[in-house]
Specification:
There is one protein chain. Helix content is 42%, strand content 12%. An eight-stranded parallel β-sheet has the order 2-1-3-8-7-4-5-6. It has a single domain (3-296), classed as Histone deacetylase domain (Arginase, Chain A), CATH 3.40.800. It is an alpha/beta fold and 298 residues long. Helix 1 (23-33) packs across helix 11. The protein is globular and about 45 Å long.
Length: 298
């Protein structure tokens, strides 16, 4: 198993900021301490290049963000303060998903202990997302003629509006999103398939909806699947409004991974959101996804 990680994923934030920046480092430590991953399975990603980013994003936006000339309103929309470290983090996170995608094409699986930045649009960032790592990785694989069709299974509690916008007129990419109906973003951009779940949706209702919708991915017949496995569906998540248990999240992961393996196509896994208090609940849930991944990709 190859999983991409770098300490660049963690950057300083002002005291009291609601984004759980420390989760990336804590997750790496947890996975190693529990023996879920071995040190030699972790790989440092290359930074995404301007050329790679420009396959999806407007060059004016890329250059403004990377140079620090992006305007204050655009930074407020992203929700994280600009810094050179934040630029490096954004490039590393996107580069990690590109790397994971290439590894997955070779070995069947690649992971990124960050990424899943599905609120990033072609020309703007939003909701803690700067560049859309999954979209860029798909574009890279398509440019390299490694794939023709890709599917994204987005199970973050927040609808993947940026991903939906990017691929709205690209029939070769299938986007499915299960998300909270009454949660951010409050104006949804239609995915290929959207499933809006009610507040306080629990394990059974969630899993029933997931099982009902996954066959649509099979009908699409993708060459690769990207899994955005956000854990902000947890009942203790501060921004989630759903009510899944830790066992329910792992059952979700089993459903997705067994399904992807039945398709016989490569899988790329990214983290997505998680805002539980205490942060240890988020780390435990993300680690649960990797416990499940380990069973399917030993």
């Amino acid at each position: 198993m190859v999983v991409f990680y770098t300490d660049l994923f963690t950057v300083p934030l002002p005291d009291g900021h609601k984004f759980p920046m420390q989760k990336y480092r804590l997750l790496r430590e947890y996975l190693l301490a529990e023996g879920i991953l071995e040190e030699h399975e972790l790989r440092i990603p290359m930074l995404a290049t301007r050329r790679e980013l420009a396959l999806i994003h407007a060059t004016e936006y890329i250059d403004a963000f990377c140079s620090g000339t992006i305007d204050a309103k655009a930074i407020r929309r992203i929700g994280l303060p600009w810094s050179e470290a934040f630029v490096q983090r954004s490039l590393a996170s996107t580069g990690a998903t590109i790397g994971a995608a290439r590894v997955a094409m070779e070995s069947g699986f690649g992971g990124n202990l960050a990424g899943g930045t599905h609120h990033a649009f072609t020309s703007a960032g939003e909701g803690f997302c700067v560049f859309n790592d999954i979209a860029v990785a798909i574009a890279v694989l398509m440019q390299e003629k490694a794939i023709r069709r890709a599917a994204i299974i987005d199970l973050d509690v927040h609808q993947g509006n940026g991903t939906a916008e990017i691929f709205s007129s690209v029939p070769e990419v299938f986007t499915i999103s299960l998300h909270g109906a009454n949660n951010y973003p409050f104006t949804k951009v239609p995915s290929t398939r959207d499933v809006a779940l009610p507040d306080h949706c629990g394990d059974d209702e969630y899993l029933e909806a997931l099982r009902r919708e996954l066959p649509a991915v099979q009908e699409f017949a993708p060459d690769i699947v990207f899994y955005q496995g956000g854990v902000d569906v947890l009942q203790e998540d501060a921004l989630g409004r759903l009510a899944l248990t830790h066992e329910g999240v792992m059952a979700r992961d089993v459903e997705v991974l067994s399904f992807v393996q039945s398709l016989g196509v490569p899988l790329v896994a990214t983290l997505g959101g998680g805002y539980a208090r205490p942060i240890s609940a988020t780390v435990r849930a993300h680690a649960g996804t990797y416990r499940v991944l380990r069973k399917f990709y030993p």
